[in-house]
Amino acid sequence: MSYVFNPAPTVSVPVLGSPARFPVHRIYCVGRNYEEHAKEMGFTGREAPFFFMKPADAVVVVNAGESARLPYPSLTKNLHHEIELVVAIGTGGKNIAAADAHKHIFGYAVGLDMTRRDLQNEMKKQGRPWSIGKGFDHSAPIGVITPAASAGAIDSAEISLQVNGTDRQRSTVAKLIWNIAEVIEHLSAAWELQPGDLIYTGTPEGVAAVVPGDTLTGAIAGLESIRLTVE
Ligand code: MN
Asked: Can you give the CATH number for the domain in which 81 is found?
């Protein structure tokens, strides 16, 4: 087998306590999955979960104890942070029942669903796809993946984001509108999940803009925290 040019390298994320890395297949994201964030975006009431995607190579790996660079993207004047719990799928499947969802989870990580909010809003207004607002290069920072067995009570973990040391977002994973198992049930009805899929499960309220020079610190109790500087 030969290729007409070298294939892109496999995107991967470090795993806590293991020399082996987690190879990324796809990145799925859940929209408006915390009530107070849905409200701040102008929506109320429980709606069926909906999904969008980012390319796998939008990942920005944040190693434990290190600070990563986050390049300020082109075209936007309103780059928003969205702190999110990321679920890493280890065993694929389709039509997975919520009761079986835990068997498919490899582990969890802290992630950021970076968003070009001005472009996303313009696309919403025009009824066009969100890709330019959500799926741009470097839009999916993620920290070290903690295997599920070591992650503690993730369903009720505190989740927070600070910018330059000041709280912007603080909530608990318990406030997910659709919990982790329900997200997997809905997602696997629409796509066959594969080992290596990452699911960004949604952000709590407090999303806001960052500018070059800002330092973001994201944390979820029981997981490795992340630190990035916007450049
Ligand atoms: Mn999000």
From this structure: 3.90.850.10
